[in-house]
Amino acid sequence: QVQLVQSGAEVKKPGASVKVSCKASGYTFTSYGISWVRQAPGQGLEWMGWISAYNGNTNYAQKLQGRVTMTTDTSTSTAYMELRSLRSDDTAVYYCARAQGFGSDLDYWGQGTLVTVSS
Amino acid sequence: QSALTQPRSVSGSPGQSVTISCTGTSSDVGGYNYVSWYQQHPGKAPKLMIYDVSKRPSGVPDRFSGSKSGNTASLTISGLQAEDEADYYCCSYAGSYTPYVFGTGTKVTVL
Question: What is the pLDDT of residues A21-37, one digit of tens each?
Fold first, then answer.
């Protein structure tokens, strides 16, 4: 069965960076893309970006351009999302989700990773 | 790109039907037949319930249905059950620069 398993919770100071992993299993990793979505406490869902596991092409949300980098390691079927220059309003649960293609529906989700940014 | 507009909450008794609206613009909901709906229980990850406006993934009960008219998409839950109590988010494709625009979210309460 398809599974996306994310790394554990993180606590970071303002200005630091965080890298969240998302290990995929149960399907051919390179046949799909991965989107990252975050949810601030008590708030809605916000799309952060997408990466093709086939060729590494990326598309980032405009507001995060320059602070976010998404990568994949096809040898371990793992996707990564790194966010730099963290601010308090980056405190959120970060989800990875599988997408057939760019802009397509998100059919399987990871369990989420809480990132807390606090001094 | 602004978030799609959903009602803050809807409620219904077991067995009743509820409909959640999702209003966007001609640049997102009205421009593409790529609207999806996600169910999220407290503390859990979202779950895909509807894609491509009205298609249901395998395993999703047929009590859930989707539709679209103009710039507004809708999710209807028929025969409401206690386990349907959750937050629901719509999502629309909005072009190559912003492929995903989410709705503001709706809390469904089963009375």
Answer: 999 999 999 999 999 99
